[in-house]
Amino acid sequence: MADLAINGGDPVAPDGLREEWPIVGDCEREQLEDVLKSGNWCSAGFYFEEGESKVKRFEDEFAEYIGTEYATGVPNGTQALELAFRAIGLKPGDEVIVPSVTFFASASAVVLANGVPVFVDVDPETYQLDPAAVEAAITEHTKAIEVVHYGGYPADMDAIREIADTHDLYVVEDAAEAHGTEWNGEKVGSLGDMGCFSLQLGKPLTCGEGGVITYDDDELAERVYSYSHLGRSIESGKYEHHVPAGNYRLSEFLGGILLAQLNRLPEQTDRRYKNGEYFAERLAEIDGIDTLKQDPRITKRGYYFYFLRYDAEQWNGIHRDDFMEALQAEGVPCSTAHNDPLYRNPAFANIDPVLQHGNEKDYDAMHCPEAERIYDSEAIAMGKDFLMHRENIGKIMEALQKVRDHKEEL
User: Fold this and answer.
1) Residues 6+ apart with CB under 8 A from 372
2) Terminal-residue alpha carbon distance, the chain
3) Rounded to an integer, what distance in angstroms lies between the CA atom of residue 334 and that of residue 338?
4) What's the rounded Cα separation, in Å, for the pair 358 and 345?
5) Above pLDDT 90, what percent of the chain?
């Protein structure tokens, strides 16, 4: 084998992996041209006048895809979470249990809705909420459990739902990275009281920027409608407003793109899932590299990240970051995902006490050992797009084996 690329050798994949995203074609162009020619660019008019809204059609089709009664499109995933927390009646100072391993918006949305995030540790085998840590964090102020299906891997919804039912808590699913993921045959976003998805450019379903909320309850439907449509009620007129609220609508252009992209999603999800399972089988050939736990209750896995679990002890003590640098030099893109447990982020470590409404938490003193270990030395995140092409897996395996064979060079 040649020397490692990081030391001047030839890389395994000099042009990188085969990755294209977003995937577009005539269907997206036709949808956009249809909206452009119609002159009906704003979805608001369709709530008060006759005609078919592409946003409304997308909401109906996405609700059917997820398996819920309702879906509401909004400008981004953060606002989807914020509106969900408002809809469940979060009051100033109410606590929401949040995993410490996730993207910033999972917790910032709680603060935007006047709640207080309570960060808990994760299961080291899945990187998802640890049910025991959730149970231990519940107080008289707890209003909800926010489940984040991090990277597209589902949290243990059996255990979380049992805890929530026992303590009469809401479950809000942050499924921003988990479009198409299934738990026991049911799609995430339908397993809690409310599901929240991001439609940002990198997500498995995208319109560039957007979000969507999924839910079943009629009372929640009324609240979501009101909070996202300037305080109107479902039955009220255009100029009748019942609560002070903002405008969280999607444009018809975005609705058209989403209709086209939603048609692509099932096949793309199936392809990534099959290639992801194949990749997991191949990874067994490499000592010191593992995947997240294989759980038979996961009946389909959507992907935003494909996580590798790196064990430095089996790599002569080479630090994860040095290993990643060598892998990147071979043409395999990878990262640590979101870098640190959320409570270490300055937004929380230095949070203004006013934002905690008298229920102050010392995030700077918080310690979740598994989350810290995972980010400091174990987690390696690969983006979803390489999974669209099986030939990429062969190149990755070749690069991993090359680094393994030449680990003494690191």
Assistant:
1) 341
2) 15
3) 12
4) 21
5) 95
Task: Enumerate residues 6+ apart whose C-beta is below 8 A from 115.
Answer: 85, 90, 91, 92, 93, 94, 95, 96, 143, 144
Q: What is the pLDDT of residues 161-197, one digit of tens each?
A: 999 999 999 999 999 999 999 999 999 999 999 999 9
Domain ranges of the chain: 26-262, 265-409
- How many other CB atoms are there within 10 angstroms of residue 125's CB atom? 14
Q: How confident is the model at residue 313 (pLDDT cuts 50, 70, 90)?
A: very high
| C-alpha pair distances (Å), 346 with each of 107, 108, 343, 354 | 13, 12, 8, 16
102 by DSSP, 3-state: which?
coil
Taking the C-alpha atoms of residue 217 and residue 392, their distance in angstroms, rounded to an integer, is 43
Query: What is the third-level CATH fold of 265-409?
Result: Aspartate Aminotransferase, domain 1 (3.90.1150)
Q: What 8-state DSSP symbol labels residue 49?
A: S
CATH topology of domain 26-262: Aspartate Aminotransferase; domain 2 (3.40.640)
* Residue 251 tokens, joined: 């444009």
